[in-house]
Specification:
By secondary structure, the protein is α+β, with helices and mostly antiparallel strands. The chain has helices at about 15-20, 40-45, 90-95; strands at about 1-5, 55-60, 65-75, 80-85. It contains three helices and four strands, in the order βααβββα. A four-stranded antiparallel beta sheet has the order 1-2-3-4. The radius of gyration is 13 Å and the shape is globular. The model has no long low-confidence stretch (mean pLDDT about 90).
Length: about 100
């Protein structure tokens, strides 16, 4: 069963990027705010102020199978959603909703 909650401390931006990078080649899963390789995506995630505080992870046991980050701009009163990113072997609607 997949559990959704805060990103565990043992996971970092590189873990999220490793899940997202291969999905960037799939036009149905492509995320416009991301680059296409792990290093680019790590840099982009780490550029989001307090990304860990504004992120959720979907875990199947200990395995990361999805994530979502909210990039906030309090001055503009806006949020940009990074994701949802969902592993190819998981049911996208069930995880993303």
């Amino acid at each position: 069963m997949v559990a959704i909650g805060r990103v565990p401390g043992r996971l970092g931006a590189v873990d999220l990027a490793r899940l997202a990078a291969p999905l960037q080649a799939d036009t149905a899963r492509f995320q416009v705010y991301f680059g296409e390789d792990v290093d680019q995506i790590v840099t982009e995630i780490e550029g989001v102020t307090a990304w860990r505080e504004h992120a959720v992870a979907a875990l199947d046991g200990d395995r990361l199978v999805g994530w979502l980050i909210a990039e906030r701009d309090d001055e503009l009163g806006r949020v940009w959603w990074w994701g949802p990113v969902v592993s190819e072997d998981q049911p996208w609607p069930a995880i993303a909703d």
